[in-house]
Amino acid sequence: MSAPGDEWATILWDDEVTLQAYVVHVLMRRFGCSREHARELMELAQHDGRALVARGSREEQEMHVAGLHGDGLLATLERVQS
Amino acid sequence: MLATLGRQVLGLHRAVIDRTAIDSDPVMARLYPDAYEDPADAAEFRRLASGDIAFARMQSMTRMVVDLESAMPTEVDGDVVQLEVDAEGADAWLRALGEVRLVLHVRTGQDKAELPDDVTDDDIAQLRDVIDWVGFVQATLLEALDGRMPQ
Q: Could you say which of B91, B101, B142 has the minimum Cβ distance to residue A21?
């Protein structure tokens, strides 16, 4: 069901209880992004309800989603519409 | 109190590893959410990944519970404990504190009919205070960590 070369995305969903500073901390640690970028992604998820935080192979994104779930965040993966 | 809550959350993760978790429990739905919109894909992801996720979470939560239970109360006030954690311990604590908040948030938001009969409105109000207090602890720890990390 997944053709090789398909691109997948990790989506972070807004969460009414998790502290903003914790979300920023998790994004910085997991994706190695700057505090400023992590904050932008967190704010995007809060504002739009969802934010694309990573893209690449399905395997990679499944690893990200599992990691984010382990950190207590709401995340899903979906195929990138090309 | 926090150690007791932590032990209860450990039981939830243990149930995931033992495949005895109650899937219809809203707490489980929040701690182990669907990874895919498609139910079949979500079920497959859960089957493959939830055991590892639960194991990692048990490690973090165990770290916090053990730290708390081995800490000596200060002489000034028996309710206060002072702890030192290293960077790895701090990450485990952040996850564990966040998890306790998630569980309490879901439980206090549930319909009273779904909770044990002896749970009163006062109990629920107290648990909401605990959510705030645990959030304060987590925020304080994050501030302490951020002070040491490159901006």
A: B142
Give the closest-approach CA distance of A15 to chain B in angstroms.
Answer: 10
Q: Which residues in chain B have their CB less than 8 angstroms from residue A74's CB?
A: 33
In sequence order, the 6+-apart residues with CB closer than 8 A to the CB of A74 are: A12, A13, A14, A15, A68, B33
* Distance between A19 CA and the closest CA of chain B, angstroms: 7
- The whole-angstrom separation of Cα A44 and Cα A51 is 6
Query: Contacts of residue B32 in chain A, CB cutoff 8 Å?
Result: 69
pTM to 2 decimal places: 0.91
Domain of A61, in residue numbers = 8-79
Q: Quick check: is A52 in a domain?
A: yes
The interface predicted TM-score of the complex, written ipTM, equals 0.91
Residue B80 has pLDDT above 80, yes or no: no
Q: What is the pLDDT of residues A21-64, one digit of tens each?
A: 999 999 999 999 999 999 999 999 999 999 999 999 999 999 99
The tally of domains found in chain A comes to: 1
DSSP-derived secondary structure letter, B134: H
Q: How far is A40 from chain B (nearest CA, A)?
A: 14
